[in-house]
Amino acid sequence: MEAFKNRDIQILITTRVIRNFYFGYLSFILPLYLKYMGFSYVEVGLYALTATVSSSILVIISGFFGDLYGRRNMLIVMSSLSIYLLIILLITNNPLFLFLSSIFGISFSGIGGGAGGGSIAPLINALVAERVSENRTRVYSTITSLGTFSSVAGGIFSAIISGSVAGFYHILFIVGLILAVISTLITFFMQDVQEKKEKKILPVKSGKNIMLISMAGMFGSLGLGMVLPLISLWFQDMGLKAYQISIIFTVSYIMAGIGVNFASYFENYLGTIKSIVTFRFLGSILLVFIPFLPLAVAVIVYVLRTMFYQMALPIRQNFSMNAFSPGERSRGSSITGIFRRLPYGIASSIGGFLFSVGMFALAFLSAGLVSTIDPILYYVFFRNMEKN
What we know:
By secondary structure, the chain is an all-alpha fold. It has one domain (about 1-190, about 200-385): Growth Hormone, Chain: A (Up-down Bundle). It contains 17 helices and no strands.
């Protein structure tokens, strides 16, 4: 495709691959590390809540300032935040400072989560939309797939390190820090080609679609947030070791990386809205069954739900960019991101409490049922916009 010859698209892919390598293990190693450092379930949940609130603030800053003052410049700023997080994790064991590292908005969701990605997501979505006019879902799918397979490599790396080295946490954090610096530096080579920077602060042209997408996404994240930030701790309580949990996440990344490449084909066959609804419903409802199954089967179901949930992502990204006015795309993505992040963080605190009192089944049941409201509302709101 011609789009992949664009230098900025190549840079976005490269930085995504580098970033996903260390996020591929950081998303589930961090809660394990906090537990290792003495944090309780409730405190881990509060950390996730604080990180989500901070991420919500950062995503508003990135989206609004990106539309108003340049998306490339804000991408550089937001890409650098994980550097500071990793420095804190490396230089201190103080519980207060470890907790304060949550202000950099790290997500516990990895892939297949409901928080809406990091603060760079609104910028990347808009940057791709600026540079690609046709077959955009395919571009989003490719970027997501390559990033996912990079997460696979990161998961394999973490499994090897955590299974063979006693001080594996700090080794993983050092590698992450080096890669975070590299990915941020590469971003400097992008061009800021945004043709017209908006003067109006609020995205009034896209207001209705922004709010409808936000309302649907809010329920998805409210459900998933009860379980996904803590899922590695549940696997640990079921008797699995850190390297085994790494393998589970790695397999889920592989399946998601394969599945997402078929997203554009399903979109052409089923239609945009039906594809989103189908995959998000499957990615949500399967959570209900996990605590009631034998562990081996529960692992398989977790892997499948991650794949289905991720397959909807590039289709949903493309639909959102088409639903938003070109000059409001970053702000639209940031507002919808807020409605995903805040409920996700609130739900993580609820999930932390449920986990602390052993009510795992209730947490999974609530997560699955509440999150299915997301695809249901998506169908109700947008079924008349279906293009099939």
